[in-house]
Here is the input.
Amino acid sequence: MSAHSILSVERLEKRYGDVHVLKDINVAMQPGDFLVLVGPSGCGKSTLLGCIAGLSDVTSGTIRIAGEDRTHAEPASRDIAMVFQSYALFPNMTVGRNIGFGLEVRKVSDGERDAKVRQVAEMLKISHLLERKPAELSGGQRQRVAMGRALVREPKLFLFDEPLSNLDAKLRVTMRTEIKRMHQATGASIIYVTHDQIEAMTLATRIVVMKDGVVQQIGTPKEIYDTPVNTFVADFMGAPAMNLMPAKVSRQDGAIRIEIATAGGQPLVLTDYGNAPTLLPESPADLIVGLRPEAMTDADQVDGRLIQRANCQLDVVEPAGADTYAVITLSGTEAIARLSGDATVTAGEIVPLSFNLSKISYFDPHSGKRL
Amino acid sequence: MLGRRQIREKWMLLVPAMAVLGVITLVPLVNTLWLSFTDARITAIVTPVKLIGLENYVYALTDPDFQEALWRTLYFTVVSVGLEVALGISIALLLNQEFRGRTLLRALIILPWAVPTIVNAVAWRLIYHPDYGALNSLLFQLGFISSYQSWIGSTQLALNMVILADVWKNFPLVVYVALAALQTVPGELLKAAAIEGAGPWKRFRAITLPWIAGPLLVVIVLRTIEAFRVFDIVYVMTGGGPADSTKTASFYVYQEYFNYLRSGSGASYAVLVAGISAVLILAYYAAARRQDQGSRA
Here is the structure.
């Protein structure tokens, strides 16, 4: 782990009695990183955040913040701030006192405290709310106050625990942009927990994908999206998810031959010239092939190598405005193709689709790992 | 708008309750008020009653013994309710922690409150007994006192010893109300305060106490009303003595009515005691309203 890491978590384990919640977690982040912990419910992401905050004890392992061992330190002495899912605003205090509470505890003089509270309130556009109580605010305003309380102390590390999940869909998008803007403006180091992979993709500089208390993959949003390390990450990240289709795969003259069964009986055959055949076992094998919906389109540019065309029968057609999604049964799975918004296709129709193989993934059908 | 039938139904449902309330509350109240302006006495033979205006009140308010009894009652109320609240919250905070045997302890803590006041008073009189009381025995064996004391025979100590017995009986009520309220404090608020750097005391003062203030106020008002009209525990433990040192306002009213049989004068004392209780309760509510304005999310 780098000496300059703002946070490094090493060999972290957490158990509640017999339940092993976090297993050998190793995560490091650099100053200014926006690290998103993402995974399904119960994957341990919030527990990991709680351990970093000092709100739950760790069973073993080390947590360093700005180079110092803080594994067993009190939350107050970790120099962190946290925004909770429920916002956790103090109901008996005004917005101004809520924001300045950390400074009040630290006995910062009234004048300095007021000035800092006003400065942060201005940045978050909540100056006119300072005298109100949290009960008098809307969800979005409470969210801003919670962020203000975190920002005002200028801590080393910001922790966000699913901060947008209590907001309606539209406000969530607005606040997501606000958080991103705040990160760009302040260069703060942020750890952000969410189960929403779109939030993870849009906000993060680096993503940690977790499942069952185990880190599956750490990488930039692009790395996670383009080269998922296993079928879980491939399936979890991206909406709609990556199409994971069982296929017969074999080496063929310096390329890879892919044969996918279709409902019609005639298999779909594609040839991948982009990846080295040595990636695969020597003899023909049954693997899982992964293609994102946007790699299966009705686009015209076909070069016969990276982009190949094949006829497919559309089972269901779902117009979604900007795109039209078409469901195709391939190898018994429902694969989704992303067609243009003004595609004039109907269910049951057989249409030629373009398959972009430049970002194809191969996974072992037993372990689910990427080849 | 209610129809004729609904209005009739409404009154049919209301009248029985109003009649009961009228007979057991309104009639005695009006009667007491009326008596307080007369020279009525409790006598075997019916004697004519004369209206004497405010004479009883003037007498009561200028009676130094009654004034002393009022101050004594105020002291009893403030100290016993204060101790009950402090002890009640402290124990509720303990019982709100997780530990083995918590459920059993929570059940046991209510026992003193379940004991009738008279039984409690008799038990404490025995505990305080100057010759064979448990308190003397305990303090003597621990070396805190060199000889047995007459705890409720001393004018300096008696009132405080009655207060102690009263606190013992009533603090469980505060524990239960506070514990119920503590269980509604959102954990995230306390976590947020901890991350902001607040220690246990600051978290209690800034977060927990304001959150439980509403339910606490109810129990404080209840206990204040009860404490201000304290009678039974005093009657059993000390009979108002020694040398009137535990004679509270209600005891004074009782004496005026039933020892001296002056029902007119006694009624004026009773009205004054009730009036002061009402002022105390209004003061609590005013304080609570100031604190609670828009405080809950």
